Amino acid sequence: MADRDGVIWYDGKMVNWRDATTHVLTHTLHYGMGVFEGVRAYKTDKGTAIFRLKEHTDRLFRSAHILGMKMPFDKQAISEAQRAAVRENNLESGYLRPMAFYGAEAMGISAKTLSTHVIVAAWSWGAYMGEEAITKGIRVKTSSFSRHHVNITMCKAKANGNYMNSILAHQEAAQDGYQEALLLDVDGFVAEGSGENVFIIRNGKLYTPDLTSALEGITRDTIIHLAKVELGLEVIEKRITRDEVYSADEAFFTGTAAEVTPIRELDNRAIGEGTRGPITEKLQSLYFDVVKGKNPKYAHWLTLV
Ligand code: PMP
């Protein structure tokens, strides 16, 4: 990832990709106190557009606020940085990674004297789990790792350190031959994937876990909106058990990277027909039309770069 052409927005300037480095004593590298976003830009008929830029930028600043991190730039500057990162890397579509992290002024737990730095990188990135995952669905395993407890870390912050939990869960699932992990909360209820929110469908109704320990996903919000408004589906946010997932007619993950990825199996039990379900397919198709600018009703969710 590091040795390539292109530019990265770094503290207000575009720098060459290879020169976007930081010191080994960078505080965030040691302790994980930082915040980031995952954003996508899509090719539309009017040009390349970032999907829900405002919501992603708002969440980045909310994450920083939760951690008590002072942001050295305002939302306007970080929004412009994201547009510039896509534009100046000549991307037709791609993934964006804004991140705020502490500098290398001091070691130790106190972050009081540290500066905050911000980067925005952008690169080309296709389907997160491969094209086949989108059409056929994936095999998922319930993780032996629990999702964070809400008073151990801040689950509503998209914080760097939170992802050690995600990586442990994903690594375990992948080593056992599954494509993704499903994490339960500390009480044993379904929380989310390592980098996705989760939905199930039963008797034509859509269910998703309430947000207690899951990230407030922007794709989750988009899908809830499309399900209600475009398909007239009832959407219920509630505690969900793993056997409710086993018994669902359909299930899928949502995330900026994962988009809408059907789940065809959980813990070696087929979900529904064991393939992408019809409502999942409709929601996927609605989602892709919206992000690619093919549905003018949702043009306000797209920001041209
Ligand atoms: N949960 C976790 C833990 C995530 O990392 C992500 C990806 N940001 C999501 C859910 C989905 O969020 P979004 O739809 O905003 O990408």
What would a concise description of this structure say?
With 305 residues, the chain is of the alpha+beta class.
Corresponding CATH superfamily of the largest domain? D-amino Acid Aminotransferase, subunit A, domain 2
Structural class: alpha+beta
CA-based shape: globular
Distance between the termini: 23 Å
The tally of domains stands at 2
CATH fold title of the largest domain: D-amino Acid Aminotransferase, Chain A, domain 2
Tell me which CATH architecture of the largest domain applies here: Alpha-Beta Barrel
Uncertain stretches = none
Number of distinct beta strands:
17
Bound molecules: 4'-deoxy-4'-aminopyridoxal-5'-phosphate
Biggest β-sheet description: 9 strands, mixed
Q: How many helical stretches? A: 8
Catalytic activity: L-valine + 2-oxoglutarate = 3-methyl-2-oxobutanoate + L-glutamate; L-leucine + 2-oxoglutarate = 4-methyl-2-oxopentanoate + L-glutamate; L-isoleucine + 2-oxoglutarate = (S)-3-methyl-2-oxopentanoate + L-glutamate
GO molecular function: L-isoleucine-2-oxoglutarate transaminase activity; L-leucine-2-oxoglutarate transaminase activity; L-valine-2-oxoglutarate transaminase activity
Cofactor: pyridoxal 5'-phosphate
Family: Belongs to the class-IV pyridoxal-phosphate-dependent aminotransferase family.
